[in-house]
Write a structure and sequence with these properties.
By secondary structure, this protein is mostly helical. It has 3 domains: 8-229, no CATH class; 234-284, no CATH class; 363-453, no CATH class. Helix content is 53%, strand content 4%. It is built from 21 helices and 6 strands. The strands form 3 sheets. The protein has a two-stranded antiparallel sheet. Strands 3-4 form a two-stranded antiparallel sheet. It has a two-stranded antiparallel sheet with strand order 5-6. Helix 1 (8-19) packs across helix 2 (26-35), helix 6 packs antiparallel against helix 7 and helix 16 packs antiparallel against helix 17. The longest helix has 19 residues, at 429-447. The relative contact order is 0.10. The model has no long low-confidence stretch (mean pLDDT 94).
């Protein structure tokens, strides 16, 4: 049964799939509407589908991937985001990638970054305490924040500070003395350079008495994580970051409190928080829907997924870098600022250029272009307005406002010399060839509308 794109059920499902994943094609949204929102949310949050990508990523774009090359590692992950049957798992991996930050600009071992990424994928929707314990022993994190230099009598405070400031509590919920004592607890936590695995060096560990956040004992790193998990500021801090990532850039304490309460009462489990967010009326309100800018990753992956284009991912890496985001290489330990910082003259131009690449594909490699040509030849569209509405439905999952629709219709009704000339609906292969430039160009124009920049 066909579902009207303007219906509340369709709009909610499209919104869910954009925020809890990387978008979906029109047909997928329609089929999931039939299952119901509650059922789909439960499936996204609690069910993990068998993933053929786990065993099918040794080759990409006709060549063997080299995991010693940063670009190949980026392609590996982009491919997962485009094709994985578990979109929320990949979206949460992206969230933790920007929270527990490590970057290859400093970590000169891509195997470590690959393993860290898999750690986020494996544990990112489970218990936050368990994840933080694992991250504290993760070699990429140890290298990135210099904990391999953290030794008895010469404590390095980098990880101890960021663990509290950026990863668990936030500024204002600890003292400088807490940082110093915290660092002592993580002395001796390092990694084996030959195996790229965690290694504890007892001779370098300070097993003396330490007082951290009012708790006194001969603490080690595991103990510190346990102490941090009991701090009253932690649930709000983590849920604020989740809220900003999935719901809205504007997160008040009142907005976050229901989710922080769920997080705390569940024993710091991530899944109940996500389920509550995705089922809340607020998540589908006007103040939330279409109010966040797509990150470069979301933009690129959504563009490929929604069009179905079979495109080499290597050019996408350069496009994303020009848009302001390079996977596995955040600009600082704080990650990316996000929000309105994604949009400026240079980054918008990079987005437009990437969309032009997709629009110039041959129909054989672009299911969307092939589908619209077949639909036209079947006589299912009679006017330029029909063609514009077709693209809007499949790329934006919504109706265009009257002004945007008029601009795009005028584009179809203008020849290459800029003169008014009614667009002729193609009826055979010859007239289709004549119309292809306009049809491809329209796809590009829809993807550069303000609406397509939003998620």
């Amino acid at each position: 049964m066909s579902v009207d794109v303007t219906s509340r059920e369709y709009q909610q499902m499209a919104h869910l799939l954009r925020r809890a994943g990387f978008g979906a094609d029109h047909e997928t949204i329609q089929s999931l509407v039939q299952k119901g929102l509650k059922s789909v949310v439960h499936s996204l949050v609690y069910e993990t589908a068998p993933d053929p990508l786990d065993t099918m990523l040794d080759r990409m774009d006709g060549e063997e991937l080299n995991y010693n090359q940063a670009g190949d590692l980026q392609i590996w992950w982009l491919n997962r985001m485009v094709h994985s049957p578990n979109p929320l798992q990949e979206k949460m991996t992206l969230f933790w990638h920007g929270h527990f930050v490590s970057a290859y600009s400093k970590v000169n071992n891509l195997l470590m970054l690959y393993r860290q990424n898999q750690l986020f994928r494996r544990m990112g929707m489970g218990n936050f305490r368990d994840l933080t314990q694992a991250v504290s022993k993760d070699p990429a994190m140890i290298w990135y924040l210099d904990n391999q230099y953290n030794r008895k009598g010469h404590a390095n405070e980098n990880y101890g500070r960021e663990l509290m400031e950026l990863f668990t509590l936030g500024i204002g919920h600890y003292t400088e003395e807490d940082v110093r004592q915290n660092a002592r607890a993580f002395t001796g936590w390092g990694f084996n350079r030959l195996t790229a695995e965690y290694q504890f060096n007892p001779e370098q560990h300070d097993d003396g008495i330490k007082t951290v956040l009012g708790q006194t004992g001969s603490w080690n790193g595991n103990d510190i994580v346990d102490i941090l998990m009991k701090q009253p500021s932690l649930p709000s801090f983590i849920c604020t970051k989740l809220y900003k990532f999935f719901v809205s850039d504007n997160a008040s304490p009142e907005d976050v409190k229901p989710y922080a309460d769920i997080f705390a009462s569940s024993g710091l489990k991530i899944q109940p928080v996500l389920e509550a967010m995705f089922l809340s009326p607020e998540f589908y309100s006007e103040k939330v829907m279409w109010q966040k800018f797509k990150t470069p990753t979301e933009f690129v992956v959504d563009a490929i997924r929604s069009t179905g284009t079979q495109v080499s991912l290597r050019p996408a890496l350069f496009a994303m870098r020009a848009m302001g985001q390079e996977l596995f290489n955040a600009p600082s330990v704080k990650g990316w600022d996000g929000g309105v910082t994604w949009i400026n003259t240079n980054t918008l131009f990079a987005r437009f250029q990437f969309c032009m690449q997709l629009a110039r594909m041959n129909p054989e490699n672009s299911p969307m272009l092939a589908a619209i040509e077949q639909t036209l030849l079947k006589g299912e569209m009679q006017t330029p307005e029909d063609v514009v509405d077709y693209y809007a439905t499949r790329l934006l999952h919504r109706r265009l406002d009257d002004h945007s629709r008029e601009v795009l219709v005028n584009y179809l009704n203008t020849n290459r010399n800029g003169e008014a000339e009614p667009f002729q609906i193609p009826t055979n292969a010859r007239t289709m060839r004549a119309a292809q430039l306009k049809i491809h160009g329209l796809m590009h124009m829809v993807m550069v509308t303000p609406e397509f920049q939003l998620v």
